[in-house]
Structures are given as structure tokens and as C-alpha cells.
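Kindly inspect what follows.
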Amino acid sequence: MTDLFEFHSGHLPLLVSIPHAGTKIPDNIFGRFSNAGKKLPDTDWFVPRLYEFVKDLGAYLIVANYSRYVVDLNRPPDDKNLYEDEKGSGLIPMTLFDGSPLYAAEEPFTEEDINERLDTYWRPYHTKITEVVAQMKEDHGYALIYDAHAIASRIPNLFKGKLPDLNLGTNNAESCAPECGYAIAEVIRASGFTSTINGRFIGGYMTRHYGKPAKHVHAVQMEIGHAAYMDEASLEYDEEKADKLIPVLKNVVNAYLGAMSPGSPPV
């Protein structure tokens, strides 16, 4: 398949990954979804639009075209839970974030079914990331991964109250050099948006698997609350809100790059 993801090549030691904004679903899968599931409520809406600027910046960019409901690219291939209290999510999701069923009828998946989705959708995405990381290390001596996400600001089944606007995850300071986390944290704390670091979201599979500072690969996750840039009731992009957020995201990305800029030896 040639339409699994969009890829933009770059020249900087930075790869921005957007694994959950895709909405493509094969007909034989979509037809079995519940009515609620067919609305794709857990999509990371408009995230590629928010990060369009990284192309001009010179970063690498990879954006998945297929929905997380087909297979979740930010979950490990063995489907082990990333969070002890994880609900409504998995390698092949069976429920929506609110706990309701994704499929209209119970769907028993065989090991063959799972392997087919891994081989068709999951592995090509991660193979590309691995190739880009290797290229960045060859060119620069180190690699930076920025995993970009967004989520509804209120999901009682997953967390209490309203999620902060900007949620930085560094796997509790294990997925990147300290200066990377410090630099980004300084930007988001001064941004005027509500924020937290390693709160409800500390980073998924991308952050934890690829972020190996000792091997000169650094990874962070940014989870944005939908309320920061869109109307959550209508699921419409809010230009006024987004115009305030995008400059902050630019500052975040530049701070990440600056923390490991030439002259600063990789940690």
C-alpha cells in the first residue's frame, strides 16, 4: 500500500510524527463499526494543520493516513498496557475512549487478524521512523523525535476534569536529555496556556521505544487538548484559537531543536 502515510523529508535532526490524525478505514472494517464508532470520535483532529510549519522549518514529518481504530501506531506490537489504569485503548481498539463499543457486534480477533494489521499498517510506519532516525544520526550525530497528538479536553472515562491545553510527556524524564525537557517546559509554562509535564500523558510507545538518550535519540510527546484550538461541540477548527496556539508550538519545536543545537554535544 502506498497511501499509508504522508512523508515530508527534511534536513534538520528532527522528526515530527503524527500517528493519530488519520481517518481512512478499509470498507470491510468500517462497515462493522457501531454508529458512534463511525464518527471517529477519538481522532486527533487538525493536528497536521497545526504543525504545517515544520515543513518550512526543515524538519522531517510523517503523518498516518489510517485511523487509530484500524491499528494504533502508538501502542506496542505485543499490546502491553502503557498505563496501569488504561481504558478504551489498545493495539486494535475494541472500545471508544468513553468506554462504548467500537464495533456493532462483538469482534473476536485471531492472532492472524492482528498480525495482518501489524504487517499492513503498523510496521511500515515504524520502519520509516527507524530509517529517518538512522539518517538523522548519520547526518547530525543525534536525532530528535516529537510525537504530536491531540485529544478531547474532557473524557471522564480516562481522566478527571478538564485536561490542560499543553501536556508534555518525556516518560518521566527518561526519553530525552534533561535540557530538552527543560527547554520545552520553559516555553509552555510561559505560553499563557494551561500546561502540565508528565501528568496524565507521559508518552506512548513512540516516546518510550525510540527515546534513548544514551544512544543519542531523544523523544517527547505533546498532547494538546482540543479546546485549545477547536470547537469541541461542532468539531470545527477555530482559526482565532489556533492562531494563538501555533506560535507557541513553533517556539516549542525551536526550543527542542535549540537544546541540542550544534555546539551542544549529544547527551
User: Anything to note?
Assistant: The mean pLDDT is 93.
